[in-house]
Amino acid sequence: MKLFAKISLILALVAFAMPRSSADTIPQDDAYGVFIPISKYMASGDAEKLSAWFAENLEINLFGVESDSSKTQAKRILARFFDEHAPSSFTIIHKTGRANMKYALGRYVSGSENFDVTVFVSLSDGTYRIRQIKIDKAD
After folding, report:
1. Which of 28, 54, 77, 129 is deepest in the core (most CB within 10 A)?
2. How would you list the strands of the sheet with 89-98, edge to edge?
3. Whole-number Å distance between alpha carbons of 16 and 112
4. Which residues are registered as beta bridge partners of 95?
5. Residue whose C-alpha is closest to residue 119's, from 130, 108, 127, 107
6. What is each CA distance from 120 to 11, 66, 111, 114, in whole angstroms?
7. 69-89 pLDDT tens trace
8. By the 8 A CB rule, do 78 and 133 touch?
9. Which residue from 41, 10, 29 is spatially nearest to 103, judged by alpha carbons?
10. CA distance 58 to 61
11. Whole-model pTM?
């Protein structure tokens, strides 16, 4: 139920933030491909390669602690998370969005621990960049 509430809130926020013009839409086949390398680097716990997809400034939220971070700070935060919670797997569960903003919900597994991960990306200068990563312990 908690996951459903999170998804509903995120969908509502995305719906209000998106332009309404059909000219702003991007074909889903092209737009969601950004999550392929992001998933790969999450699954391998490679903060260095994942950081190549970061915006210059982004929001990192680990276990409810929010941090507006530079690309370098975010890379250090995620490297520490990966060190403390070595990845067993990462799977995208759901992808959605509109126009120039997409998000994916994923499941990060570290040993016997499961984490819910939300990744927001937006289009800037023709390239998708991660604007927010949120990681919470799964229920």
Report:
1. 54
2. 65-70, 54-62, 127-137, 113-124, 101-110, 89-98
3. 37
4. 104
5. 130
6. 12, 14, 25, 20
7. 999 999 999 999 999 999 999
8. yes
9. 10
10. 10
11. 0.76
